[in-house]
Design brief:
The chain has two domains: 6-196, P-loop containing nucleotide triphosphate hydrolases (Rossmann fold), CATH 3.40.50.300; 245-341, no CATH class. It is built from 16 helices and five strands. 50% of the residues lie in helices and 7% in strands. A five-stranded parallel sheet has the order 2-3-4-1-5, with helices on both faces. The protein is of the alpha/beta class.
Length: 345
């Protein structure tokens, strides 16, 4: 299992066609006036895909009310990541995932192994974006800066963006996409037209998942595992984990049978255990589980133990970037899970 940023995965599945619920939102957004838009919502709802389609339509030589034509030189240039009037502002790790070219200096530093790809949007990249904004556009459709995931800007980077965001030079437009809008500076949010990502309905969601290779039997399991988020469901289905193994995971962890998690990274383990803990706590309060079926969950352990376990998982999630020993971290996480799930009142 190795699901990276969910919307990144979905964007790579099909870069030339977007889901019907995103098409509807694209038409609504293109009908609005403004130079800066902020697409926000939980992971897995297609923020990056929608942001890229907005940029594609803005720069398209023959756009329609529903989006870009998909056939002109501008559309092709975006597809092959070479459009002179589009600047993508992303962490280097995300740019590599999405196959966007890095700047010469950054690429040379990574090639020489002087450092690892940044997981934040670097100030150097922001300065290059500001320089891009001040140049004359290559075409006659203006320029676009796409920022994703916008929450990966640190305070210094975000403050450096503010002036350009407030007073863009020439025909410059911004589209910011985020899965954690609460982490953005209020001053950033206030300078953008906010758009909350819409959830798809089941009638259009199931056929879309089927077109992406998900069979009818596993689709409900992966959708539940992803909290109903389509891109996250695709990421989980593409991770190599069997749907039956996911359903069996809570009881397997309680028994100490961790074979299903073999090869998982610590962040992936924390994510899955968080979902088990969340559903166990929901059941304690009489609410239906969200990520697993009722029959998938073990007999309820003591709530104080669940609460303590949840706090430990939250703390572990905050330290995932530290260079811990992977094997030891996995052993610790699964040991704590087994203890919590076997506790009794």
């Amino acid at each position: 299992m190795n699901p990276p940023l969910s919307s990144v995965v979905a964007a790579q599945v099909r870069d030339d066609a977007i889901a019907p619920w995103l098409t509807r939102q694209l038409g609504q957004l293109l009908a609005q006036r403004g130079h800066a838009f902020l697409l926000h919502g939980p992971s897995g709802l297609g923020q990056y895909t929608l942001a890229l389609e907005m940029a594609r339509a803005w720069l398209c030589a023959d756009p329609t009310a529903r989006g870009a034509c998909g056939h002109c030189d501008s559309c092709h240039a975006i597809t092959v990541r070479t459009h002179a009037d589009l600047c993508v502002l992303m962490p280097e790790s995300v740019m590599q995932q999405l196959q966007w070219p890095l700047g010469e200096k950054a690429q040379a530093e990574l090639d020489d192994k002087k450092r690892k790809p940044s997981r934040e949007i670097r100030v150097d990249a922001l300065r290059e974006a500001i320089e891009f904004s001040q140049r004359t556009s290559a075409g006659d459709r203006g320029k676009v800066v796409l920022v994703f995931p916008a929450e990966r800007m640190n305070t210094i980077t975000a403050n450096a963006l503010l002036k350009t965001l407030e007073e863009p030079a020439g025909h410059l437009r911004f589209v910011l996409a985020t899965e954690a809008v609460q982490q953005l500076l209020p001053t950033i949010r206030s300078r953008c037209l906010a758009h909350a990502m819409a959830w798809p309905n089941e009638q259009e969601l199931m056929p879309w998942l089927a077109r992406h290779g998900m069979d009818a039997a596993s689709a409900p399991i992966w959708l539940r595992a992803a909290g109903g988020r389509p891109d996250d469901a695709l990421a989980l289905a593409a991770s190599g984990l069997d749907a039956a193994d996911w359903s069996a995971l809570p009881k397997a962890v309680q028994r100490g049978q961790t074979g299903a998690m073999q090869g998982w990274s610590a962040p992936e383990i924390v994510m899955a255990l968080h979902k088990v803990c969340h559903d166990m706590q929901l059941r304690h309060y009489g609410a239906p589980p969200r990520f697993f079926r009722e029959q998938d969950l073990p007999v309820g352990p003591a709530f104080p133990a669940l609460s303590q376990w949840g706090k430990a998982l939250t703390q572990a999630a905050r330290t995932m970037e530290h260079p811990f020993n992977p094997g030891l971290m996995q052993e610790t996480l699964l040991s704590e899970a087994k203890i919590a799930l076997n506790s009794r009142p």
